[in-house]
Amino acid sequence: MQSKPELSLSAAVPMQNHNASATRRTFERLSELVADDLNQVNQVIVHNLQSPVALISQLAGHLVASGGKRLRPILTLTTARMCGYDGDRHVNLAACVEFIHTATLLHDDVVDNSALRRGSATANAVWGNKPSVLVGDFLFSRSFQLMVSDGSLDVLRILSDASAIIAEGEVDQLMISNDVSTGVDAYMGVIQAKTATLFAAASEIGAVVSGRSAEDQAALRTYGMSLGIAFQLVDDVLDYSALQADLGKAVGDDFRDGKITLPIVYAIARGDDEEKVFWRRTLEDEDQREGDLEHAMTLLTRHNCLQDAMDEARRHGEEAQRMLSDFPDNDYRSALLELVDFCVDREF
Questions:
Q1: SS3 per-residue string spanning the chain
Q2: Mean pLDDT value across residues 67-85
Q3: How large is the average pLDDT for residues 3-27?
Q4: Stated pTM of the model
Q5: In the chain, where the domains are located
Q6: What is the structure's pLDDT at 5?
Q7: CATH class of the region 20-334
């Protein structure tokens, strides 16, 4: 039997202008620009994690301390500063955004039965599913307390609507899991709800606290939505290219979990009958065998699925950047433009 050619996982995805050091520096510059605000956000987070129920503080603190880029709260801080805001409402609201995100991570890990996140044991792996779900509920409750304390009905509407849509997206994702008949529109609807909606809300409230016009609020909402879609599509591609040290998960985790992502949707649609049988066996029937991941990656490359998913991410990234054209030309706007490049070109 002829041996199969060796497949280089790290080189499986053709990513243009890919420089891990450069993308890290881009994000570091953005973080430094709002460093004082971000420190205050971290203080609000720590304060609001306190509870007389010790397990709540331990479990929530574990997830918050395990890392993460604080990307969503940084969006709130930076958009507000770009719009000229000089108060402090954006700090509590950025913390609120992070609580919503953290709560969804807790619930996601339970649904996905994940053991690792960012290279560390997940809360459900350490404490079990029931405490993780309940502490996720606690974090959602904390986020609503922060919303109410802000006193703005517009902010409350934006973030509460986002929370509801995210939950709907989680359920939709569960419904399409392992379903090889899932089309592009259905998948894009899931990531728009599950991931991009919080990016959109985090960006929009920066304009709201600044008292900007409805048009500016809509522009920043679209910026965040497009950025969030691009971010998730890059995640989809990275699952077939990144190293464990970069993402805290092994190459092909999505494949092993039977997750339907955009590259997979493309591959199924473009494959012949034999290939469709392969996808149905591995993803829908969850009958995976040795060598299946390598074959899946061969098919993704054969049909240009990874590159096309990256191209789609770049299109959404360009849309995000266009939304900033009418805002003040300051350091914060420049940072938000660069953030798009970071999200698209990152390797982690």
A1: CCCCCCCCHHHCCCCCCCCHHHHHHHHHHHHHHCHHHHHHHHHHHHHHCCCCCHHHHHHHHHHHHCCCCCHHHHHHHHHHHHCCCCCCHHHHHHHHHHHHHHHHHHHHHHHHCCCEECCEECHHHHHCHHHHHHHHHHHHHHHHHHHHHHCCHHHHHHHHHHHHHHHHHHHHHHHHCCCCCCCHHHHHHHHHHHHHHHHHHHHHHHHHHCCCCHHHHHHHHHHHHHHHHHHHHHHHHHCCCCCHHHHCCCCCHHHHCCCCCHHHHHHHHHCCHHHHHHHHHHHHCCCCCCCHHHHHHHHHHHCCHHHHHHHHHHHHHHHHHHCCCCCCCCHHHHHHHHHHHHHHHCCC
A2: 92
A3: 49
A4: 0.89
A5: 20-334
A6: 33
A7: mainly alpha
